[in-house]
Amino acid sequence: MVKPSRQHNVLPGFNLALGYTLVYLSLVVLIPLAAVFIKASSLSVEDFWNVVSAPRVVASYKVSFGLSLVAAAINSVFGVLLAWSLVRYSFPGRKLVDALVDLPFALPTAVAGIALTAIYAKNGWVGQFLEEQIGFQVAYTPWGILVALIFIGLPFVVRTVQPILEDLDTEIEEAAASLGANRAQTIRRVVLPILLPALLTGFALAFARAVGEYGSVIFIAGNMPFISEITPLMIITKLEQYDYVGATAIAAVMLVFSFILLLIINFLQAWSSGRVRKGR
Amino acid sequence: MTKWNAIMSIEVRDIYKQFGNFIALDNVSLEFPSGQLTALLGPSGCGKTTLLRIIAGLEHADRGAVFLEGENATGAHVRERQVGFVFQHYALFRHMSVFENVAFGLRVKPRKQRPSEAEIREKVGALLELVQLDWIADRLPAQLSGGQRQRIALARALAVEPRVLLLDEPFGALDAKVRKELRRWLRRLHDELHITSIFVTHDQEEALEVADSVVLMNRGKVEQQGAPDAVYQHPETPFVYGFLGAVNYFHGRAEEGRVRVGDTLLHAEAAPDAHGLASGANVTAFVRPHELAIVSADVPDPVGVAAKITRIMGFGAAARIELVGLDAEAQHFEVEMSREQLASQNLVEGQSVRLTPSRIKVFEREANA
User: Which of A55, A272, B9, B155 could make an S-S bridge to B131, C-beta 3.0–4.6 Å?
Assistant: First the structure.
């Protein structure tokens, strides 16, 4: 039987591309992750459950996933603002600011953690002020974790939204204004719907990065059990006690959680981008 | 309503606008009569789009005032001016259906003025019917052709019942055939609605065909304003003459109410406006291709400007002949004649002939021209 698609495909190389993708993903992502599950499966169901549902571990899930979502949300708002300023306005030093955005990518996370701790600690520049003026402590509390997660997640939203904003013709905002829309209506009804897919992608990336973050958080968190312990720390703690199986069990749970959340975000993203692309 | 604002629904006074060192509009004053469709015509960079955007409030003039229906709107924000604006590239909201695009202006009204959902449905339905696109209400802009998109953009602008309608090169992005159709359609629509409209174009044919009145602009200044027929028949400046159609020009000198070009004195009756010129003034005589005749050079005492035929194009409704002058300037000329005439004259490429204009328009040459 003849396969017509093979003969008439305008975009050749589908089989090759798919094969390459699968092999590469397997080698780089799937096999290492599978190892996590295999290692974890050496526990009995009961032991597994005991490890992953220990109160201290559950508390760390809440800290990790809760704060990561909050940090990604905050980054979404301010990332869009930053991208907007970079795209829409020209000001002296714009290129410099543009380059600064990527710094959290390049900095070793431990360095970021130490720097943030130094600034937000009781005797640090900002921490001193916050402590004296409003009695608010950032370093060694969950707030410190949030600050670190916002820091390392900043570039994602900016870099995903920026190209869309650059493509966005100011004419459509002018059209909205000429039809009587005020600025808020224009942003809400015209600009945001177009940015939404990119914004969701940026949110997902910032969230994923925050969930997996270890280095920068560990210095500023204070790591108090039940209060400011993140899940990656729980894994490291287990590893340091040579409890490899326990560590992988927690890692497996974390992976499943993250995967489900990312899947949801991706569905949202696909739905909104489908709307926008069709309307292009 | 006082009498005059019933007549002039858009007026601009002494509008001056500069972008960096470039003067886009140099003290432009214009009045646009109520209910008319006016074309702002000129080459790119002449300031026509800037003027339109200033009238809309999308751009602000450095100096000068804009009046809409007699009311000073100079400081008013675009959303307060109640102008319908149609963009060259449609500027449709790509994430909204055709229906939602047209309904946009109604949905963003302040709560008290906002029509009910039923009223919106009815109004949008009526507008889509008006632009003959009620059958695609649920589609997204990407699924429409260029002509359809522009009609939707127009319906969207009309939804807010604007005081004036401003169109920025509305057919500029369309192909020639759709352009022509849409042009006729816009004219019919305007005859139905009688909303004061201005459209910007660089296509003289489009302006002359569609508009009630044409404003010709060049280098930030108004060259002439008038009915299409009037500006075509009686251009007031060399620019207008040259912009409104193909043109031949002869440099010469005024001589006792006639024009001398080289060794030839052009017919006096062809140039009635040459009488007022002082003898010896440097002039340029403009002649349309169909008002230039080719006569034989093989006669004793030939008259007319000497030229050589370089190319004969005998297709189309009229034949076109390209010539080159035999003097030192070696200027190019273009003559248009009927094909019968071409056949009767036995012209061949390379032949030396004389050119005599039947109607010329003479302008005194400026010192720097």
Answer: B155
Q: What's the CATH architecture for A44-279?
A: Orthogonal Bundle (1.10)
Chain B partners within 8 Å of A171 (Cβ): 87, 89, 91
Q: B351, B192, B149, B361: which is closest to B271 by C-alpha?
A: B361
Please report the pLDDT score of residue A74 as a whole number.
96
Residue B123 has pLDDT above 90, yes or no: yes
Q: Identify the closest residue of chain B to A185 by CA–CA distance.
A: B108
pLDDT band at residue A163 under the 50/70/90 scheme: very high
For A114-120, which contacts have Cβ atoms below 8 Å and span 24 or more sequence positions? Answer: A114/A219, A116/A144, A116/A147, A116/A148, A116/A151, A116/A216, A116/A219, A116/A220, A117/A144, A117/A219, A117/A220, A120/A144, A120/A147, A120/A220
CA distance B31 to B309: 46
Cβ-contact B83, B163 below 8 angstroms: yes
CB-based contact B160 A176, cutoff 8 Å: no
Residues of A in contact with B164 (CB under 8 A): none
Residue A171 to residue B89, Cβ atoms within 8 A: yes
Domain layout of chain A by residue ranges: 13-42, 44-279
